[in-house]
Amino acid sequence: MFKKAIKKKLIPFAAMSTIAVSGLLGGGAGSVDAAEKKEPEIKNIIFLVGDGMGTSYTTAQRYMKDNKETQKMEPTAFDPDLVGLQSTYPYAQNTITDSAAAGTALATGHKTYNGAVSVDSNKKEVKTVLEQAKEEGLATGLVTTSDITDATPASFGAHDPDRKNKDGIADDYYNEMINGEHKIDVILGGGLTNFKRDDKDLTKAFQEDGYSYVSNREDMLKDENKQVLGLFSEVGMPKMLDRSQEDPSLKEMTDSALDRLEQDEDGFFLMVEGSQIDWAAHDHDIVGAMSEVEDFERAYESAIEFAKKDKHTLVVATADHSTGGFTLGANDKNGAGVQKWVPEAVKAAKRTPDFMAQQIADGESVESVLGEYLDLELTKEEINSVKEAAKNDQQVDDETGNMKKVDESALVTNIDNAIERIIDAHSYTGWTTTAHTGEDVPVYAYGPGKEMFAGMSDNVDQAKRMFKILEENHKGNGDSEKIQFSDINEKTFGYEAIMALAEKGIVKGNNGKFNPSQQLTRVQAAIMLQRALDLPVPQDLNSFKDVDKDAEYAEAVAALKQAGIFNGYGDGTFGVNDKLSREQMASVLVKAFDLKKNNKEVNLSDLDSVSPSHKENVKILYQNGITTGKEDGTYAPFEKIKRDQFSVFMHRVLTK
After folding, report:
1. What DSSP line would sit under 603-656, residue for residue?
2. Residue pair 44/269 in contact by the 8 Å Cβ criterion
3. What is the 3-state secondary structure (H, E, C) of 233-286?
4. 357: which of 415, 450, 454, 468 fits an S-S bond (Cβ 3.0–4.6 Å)?
5. Least reliable range by pLDDT among 538-552, 580-594, 616-630
6. CA diameter of the chain
7. Could you tell me whether strands 403-404 and 396-397 are parallel, antiparallel, or unpaired per DSSP bridges?
8. What values do phi and psi take at 85, rounded to 5?
9. Rounded to whole angstroms, what are the CA distances from 475 to 14, 270, 333, 654?
10. Is 476 left (phi over 0), alpha (psi -120 to 50) or beta?
11. CB 238 within 8 A of CB 128
């Protein structure tokens, strides 16, 4: 078996070509291998995402929960489990991520462009942790307060070059099968419009395949089916403060999902998203944002409670990014800096400004609505500011120069903004942008394996760690057939190495045969190395004159060139069909796996015949025990390497 301690560039092999292992344990203090600690088996993973929940929001939640009668500020439910920070930048590092690129990183371990749903920078589909879990026979679930086809849940359960293609994402949930089964067992959130459409009704399709379909809280709580599709709103669900009795909370949806998923004896993977922290922050609605943090915290507490009882469940919570540039503290109305933040002014709102604005737009008086839902002492000036915003006869220039009335949507927005400004002023809440911000976000973890998430890490590391956990705890649970080649058996040279690499997808056959004696081409070597390393693929695939950017091997060659592993020839060609010599192999393996020289004496009788550009690397390969030379004491540097031989060398490096 492969060793658990893997070199920096290698992948956790169960994830095959989906991820790299760079920085698996974060690089910070507290990075401990779970296997060495002899933690309990990690049977279940609950991964929670507070969309837009940067550190300012988790800090503000502590202020919101504080008991003024005690000297010390009370902690949140998150605080005891804080293990690190996470960077969030997308593939283009000079930009700030959106939820699709961040969700893809968290779900697949790949950086990608903004708007991409689990496809890489070249729009190629990449495997998600949820999909890997289903392949290993685990039950799976997605829970969110947004539409279930929104960027974050979609990144775990679908693939699309454009996050806006929500009908297509809903189709993926139904159409994409793993081991002959739908890949998501529990789907709870909003988004009915993407499932019940003119062209098809996916709610009926799921029911025909054995799922329950529920559309309100009562039905969800009564239903006991292991597989369920729950769609509780046309698009996103109401925020916590605005819910009716028919709307389930995020905690209730999480509990419902856990009740179903825990029945699978192999375990489960569940992603839970508190979506509308982000939505409220885009709107500069501190009331909505903090109520959604509270809603998310309650779901988190539920997950922790489950994990404490189960003892085989890992809980990880983080954010995809922060939103709004929210500050605890802002200048007063005269522009003077004030060093305080007043959570009581936020708690004074019994409904969100959105809700209040809609009531006023529907004809309720400003005084009655504010009096009922906003427990603040308002000045006449503040009340008048809302009245002014509520005038539906405001004159707005249109393209013709004529005047027109404000439409209802704009009217509600105007009222909403006026109310939000009042609450901001009373609470000393500040904002810098209506978009996302690029600061690091917190990471929380509880349960066996939590140490893997400690320290400073990047968003792609979370997926890599979860792939690793699935590899170590669940490999072989699924129904995948054992790989076999008709032309090799236990007596074949390098059989164990070949089969080990084949199991991990690093080597593949052709028409059921491995062709062990076939001389290896440079392209074949590049493909195998890229499967093992999963290096970043450059956008420009025109790497060498003789490599067609549309060729199936173009990405592998370009990635290895970018990493400095394959440099090509002086004439600008790669040598696509050229056979790889043993001395060339030495240089490639040394570069690819960062092998270092040592003081071991090299006993190869033909060492001096090795080309100067490869001689040092042949020595390093020998010193690291990857080669001991041929039986006659030579290395045979110009001999062409065969597929079985290269597999043996690769296996030695990967298990070293």
Report:
1. --TTGGGS-HHHHHHHHHHHHTTS----TTS---TTSBPBHHHHHHHHHHHHH-
2. yes
3. CCCCCCCHHHCCCCCCCHHHHHHHHHHHHCCCCCCEEEEEEECHHHHHHHCCCH
4. 415
5. 538-552
6. 98
7. antiparallel
8. -125, 160
9. 7, 18, 61, 18
10. left
11. no
The answer to whether 42 and 271 have CB atoms below 8 angstroms apart is: no
pLDDT tens digit string along 177-227? Answer: 988 889 999 999 999 999 999 999 999 999 999 999 999 999 999 999 999
Between CA 21 and CA 23 the distance in angstroms is 6
**Is 616:622 a contact under the CB 8 Å cutoff?**
no
Token reading at 269: 């993977």
- β-partners of residue 436 are 323
What's the burial of 636, exposed, middle or buried (CB within 10 Å: 0-12/13-18/19+)? middle
> pLDDT value at position 504?
83
Q: Which long-range contacts (CB under 8 A, 24 or more apart) does 37-42 make?
A: 37/451, 39/448, 39/449, 40/311, 40/312, 40/448, 41/312, 41/448, 41/473, 42/312, 42/313, 42/314, 42/447, 42/448, 42/449, 42/469, 42/472, 42/473
Model's pTM, two decimal places?
A: 0.72
> What b/e sequence results for 448-475 when a residue is b if at least 16 CB atoms lie within 10 Å of its CB, and e otherwise?
bbbbbbbbbbbbbbbbbbbbbbbbbbbe
Residue with tokens 């040279």: 493
Based on the number of CB atoms within 10 Å of its own CB, is 284 exposed (0-12), middle (13-18) or buried (19 or more)? Answer: buried
DSSP 493: T
User: In angstroms, rounded to a whole number, what is the distance separating the alpha carbons of residues 261 and 263?
Assistant: 5
The letter for the amino acid at 344 is: E
Say what angle helices 554-562 and 522-533 make with each other, to 10 degrees.
Answer: 70
- pLDDT at 550 exceeding the cut of 90: no
Whether the pLDDT of residue 38 is over 50: the answer is no
Q: Are 260 and 185 in contact (CB under 8 A)?
A: yes
Q: Compute the distance between CA of residue 156 and CA of residue 42 in angstroms, rounded to an integer.
A: 20
CA 633 – CA 349 distance, rounded (Å): 83
All residues at 6 or more sequence positions from 371 whose CB lies less than 8 Å from its CB, including other chains: none
Separation between Cα atoms, residue 649 and residue 113, nearest integer Å: 36
- The answer to whether the beta carbons of residues 141 and 261 sit under 8 Å apart is yes
CB–CB of 518/642 below 8 Å?
A: yes
Q: How is residue 76 written in tokens? A: 């949140």
Angle between helix axes 643-655 and 522-533 (nearest 10 degrees) is 20
* Pairwise CA distance, residues 96 & 98, whole Å: 7
Judge contact between 319 and 53, C-beta under 8 A: yes
Structural contact between residues 494 and 649, judged by C-beta atoms closer than 8 angstroms: no
